[in-house]
Amino acid sequence: MIDWELILSRVREHVAAAGVSTGILLLMLGCFVVLAALLQVVTTLLRNRWFELLGEKSWTFLAMPGTIIHETGHALFCLLFRHKIEEMKLFSPSPDGTLGYVRHSWVKNSLFQRVGNFFIGTGPVIFGTIVIIVVTAYLMPEVWREMELPSCHTPGDLAAGALALACRMIRELFRAELWTKYQSYIWIGVTLLIGSHITLSKPDLENAGSGALFLPLLLFLLDLAVIHWFDPAELLLRRGGSFLAGALAAVFFVLLILAGFTLLIHLPAFRKGPPKAAPRR
Fold first, then answer.
1. Of 51, 149, 151, 279, which has the fewest Cβ atoms less than 10 A away?
2. What is the spatial distance between Cα 254 and Cα 163, in angstroms, rounded to a whole number?
3. Is the alpha carbon torsion for 251, 253, 259, 262 positive or negative?
């Protein structure tokens, strides 16, 4: 005879466990979302100030590397989430101020592809940050010297470890010998060119928002499917917590660097240009 009470009890336990696991995963993702939001504010200020200082023609020319990386970020996540790329221009300045774009389509009733809009919309932040991290590791390896990733068992460990790592990387930037190398000044230029285009446009934000609405549901369904065998959040912290702390620290490091550049070029020592906003992509 089927014990329905026992079955319902097990179902409730699994649903509750999946809900807790999903909450922890969203909390960890939320740390990156908060940093991404701060990056959006900082890079918008940086981008507009660059436009004021350089003028439209010079700014458009220098926008090419950052725009290519920005649009590549969109395109990579289109491929990852199986969206169809209808048309793509990595760098094609037009009279209306658009510098590039990626037009894509997806199956409207696919939860996976709809959630993909979140990552496609925020793709330039993710990919642009990765590129800056790689460039930093290549041109300024001292920043990563002897860096030990912390062990993480809770979201609190993750946040604390990431903050400690980011502060350590920032301290390395103040070593005098670092600025005797020409690579350090190339790094400044590359970081500015890329960082000023991490910012998202209004359509990017709207696209990301449409996918973010369904992200908790997808995570919950995935958690519910495997919670009988293992806890995804606990496994992620135990097996990948150190990597996540390093990734979070790297994003925070990039945020602080771009914020520093933004403050620097807003100093009175720089001439004040016309109060215009940079063209959109």
1. 151
2. 13
3. negative
When the pLDDT of each residue in the chain is averaged and rounded to a whole number, the result is 83
Which among 174, 237, 189 has a CA at the least distance from the CA of 20?
A: 237
Query: Who contacts 246 (Cβ-Cβ below 8 Å, separation ≥6)?
Result: 147, 149, 162, 165
Where residue 82 falls (left for φ over 0; alpha for ψ -120 to 50; beta otherwise) is left
Of 143-152, 190-199, 222-231, minimum mean pLDDT range: 143-152
Residue ranges of domains in the chain: 4-70+121-265
pLDDT at 137: 84
pTM (predicted TM-score): 0.81
Contact in structure between 236 and 153 (CB atoms under 8 Å): no
- Give the pLDDT band (50/70/90) at residue 272: low
End-to-end distance of the chain based on CA atoms, in angstroms? 65
Contacts of 129 (CB under 8 A, 6+ apart): 39, 198, 250, 251, 254
Which residues have C-beta within 8 Å of that of residue 159, sequence separation ≥ 6?
31, 248
Q: Buried (b) or exposed (e) across 60-71, using 16+ Cβ within 10 A? A: bebbbbbbbbbb
What is the DSSP track for 182-228?
A: HHHHHHHHHHHHHHTT-PPPHHHHHHHHHHHTTHHHHHHHHHHHHTT
